[in-house]
Amino acid sequence: MLPSIISVTKPRHDWQLYASCIILEVKVSYDITPSQASVFIAYMDLQELGLNKNKKNKNLEVPRKNVKLVSLLPGKGMLRYHRALVMIAAGNLEAVVRTLSGDSTLRMNELQSSEVQHILKLPGDNSIMKLLGWCDTVPNYLICEYLSGGTLSDHLTEEFSPQKVHQYGNTKQKRFQVAEKGNAEHLPKYALQVARGLKFLTKHRITSANQKDMFRIVNKLTSPEVDNTLPKYDVAENLANRFVDFFQQKVNSLQHAYPDYGTGNTPMEQCKSKSVFTAFKEVSEQDVLEVINSSPVTSCFLDPLPTFVFKECISDLLPVITKIVNLSLTSGQLPCSLKQAVIIPHIKKPKLDANNLANYRPISNLPYLSKLIERIVCKQFQDYLSNNDLYARMQSAYRANYSTETAQLYVQNSLLCALDERKDALLVLLDFSSAFDTINHQTLLTRLHERYGVDGIPLYWMKSYLANRTQCVIVDQNLSKDVTLATGVPQGSVLGPLLYTLYVAPLHDLIISANMQTVIYADDIQLFTSFHPDHCSDAIQKIQNCIADVKSWAISNNLFINDSKTEILHATSQFKSTTIKSISVKIDQTTITPSTHVKSLGVVLDPHLSMKQQVNAVCKSSYNAVRKISRIRKFLTKDITTKLFVNPGLRSKKVLLDAAGRCKLYDFVSMENAKEWTKLFWNENVPFQWMSPEFLFLETISPAGDVWSFGVLLWEIFSYGSEPYKGQNRSDVEKSLREKRQLPMPDNCPGAIWQVMITCREPAVEERLKIDDVTYKLAAMCHEDKVSVLGKNKF
């Protein structure tokens, strides 16, 4: 028998528990004994759940470890209850079970299916269990689709991938295989599966509204999915522990290599801020909503529910989220539950040895709510820095109207000006080892206070943000042990890169005081100087002294320069009759000679600044892009094709081409013209028998056109692979469409299926069925005809 709610009290006094969930203290009554349970309902408003909050608190104290499993009860709002139930399942069910059981080591695979069902059991109704084909783990995507009101699965088998759904000619072999069975019962089932494939493609239609989504979808369609490379392992948890130990030992080894690190010897710290930042502004619900809408839809393993589900329910959750944000801003505290990072190891380059842990970069994945609060704090802090002109003059990262292109333009312009004055120039690109991971927290807080005027609540908030951070590594859904971070800021955070930028700002003053020029973009630091060829040795000595000062400052601030990865470029005119020989710069025991080319903020520079290698690199990547686009050209509009081709590389940094390299501009022009090649796919390979009237007459692509094409495909299925409009050319087909002539009804085709074909091929777009309606009707027919649905795809 299910328990009944006796009383519900307010959440506990510790408001930080709001950060990951709302906790209700619920007293429940069983047939045998009463017990107390903490029921986790992710961000849901209590009143909307229909729970009674007016009863007095008469909870019976029972140790939490005795609370093994808890079944939830709905109040008067059954729909809200279902919604909360699904949110729990769509989030981190394992964390919920661990909390309810009081066992932090409990794993999902240790639970019996009946126990999981008991946790999420619907009162008097097991339909959701049957609907999901319940198992020991919760298939998140099924639950999320159930929550959104859609079908439970639009996922395709390999033979019905999105690329193949539209390649109608390539599906004939499969259709003939169906026809050879001679069993008409298979045809509705097959039509339903193809309809689901079309629905998938319609949901992921390529549009120009969101360029990031557009490029993501195109890459998914044209490039094979590659799993994240990992070392060989037998037990995933053991590998995760190896990673987390390695990342921690790497930072520790750097610090032990320099016994005088972190001494606070920062001679350039005389700079005092005349402005102060003593309070955050409270934000409104509209402010929070704008940040949420502009944020990427990414989720963390620690999130209680996927971000896209969170956004779908934002109208219900927004008041609670706004309160959480404002409590953090006004109290100067960041909840501990938001300071845990899940590290995903990413190999630095695909060709590196996958079994060498040193070839992996730790990428932090943080809870969505943590990054939401960080975005709001970061916006207010950036406004303060900009309004008071507190950025270093040549700092280009994380400030408005500055970018890698403006930084590189300044570098190249300075070098070209030196060459115009018949001088040479030396450009040094410094490389820091694990820069984000070695930041000294106390030094950073001192710098924020003294150099940038951060005080009061904001300073307390920054201290809370940095203190007691933990991280673990995830491998194949298995988490490593947690380790505490004594230094550094998370690389995947929103605020971390800005704090690093402010941390290294004194370097700008140090380099300028050495009569050198510099550009700083996050952890990319470049310094350069020009000199007359006759004074080459003096220039080299000046650079060596400057680098020595930078290294000394870095060590005192817990940062470490990787001498072996530091690069130097000697820029000189190609028209000089004499050249300087044997240039080398010595850094401690390492001797560095100028490179034949360097990559500066994504731009390849050569000693003569001709940009030839940069143009060649862009052209190479552009030709690769053309080959990819050609595979799906017939499904793209001209506008989208142009954006896909031009945006990635051609326009970027094109301003850097100077008059001396003007002859190479033709390469870019020819590449921009290369997109005309793909028109062959537009005009010659169009399967006009399947195309809608609006496509053939107006070259318009839309979901309604997909439904028309599916109607033709449906006719083929029930014609056992017959060719539509056989023997007719495009003109004949267009004439039939203008006269609104339908294809003949296939023999033995059920009347209901024929009606679907006709409504899919209505000449008027607004009268055609939606793809959701098509799948619904076909699914209903399959059930009525007692044709089982393939796999677990159920409606």
UniProtKB/TrEMBL annotation:
It comes from the Eukaryota. It holds the Pfam family RVT_1. The keyword Secreted does not apply. Coiled coil: none annotated. GO terms for molecular function: ATP binding; protein tyrosine kinase activity; RNA-directed DNA polymerase activity. InterPro entries: DNA/RNA_pol_sf, Kinase-like_dom_sf, Prot_kinase_dom, RT_dom, Ser-Thr/Tyr_kinase_cat_dom, Tyr_kinase_cat_dom. Residues 505-781 form the Protein kinase domain. Keywords: Nucleotidyltransferase, RNA-directed DNA polymerase, Transferase. SMART domains: TyrKc (SM00219). Residues 327-580 form the Reverse transcriptase domain. Gene3D superfamilies: Transferase(Phosphotransferase) domain 1 (1.10.510.10). PANTHER family: REVERSE TRANSCRIPTASE DOMAIN-CONTAINING PROTEIN. This is Putative RNA-directed DNA polymerase from mobile element jockey-like. It comes from Stichopus japonicus (Sea cucumber).
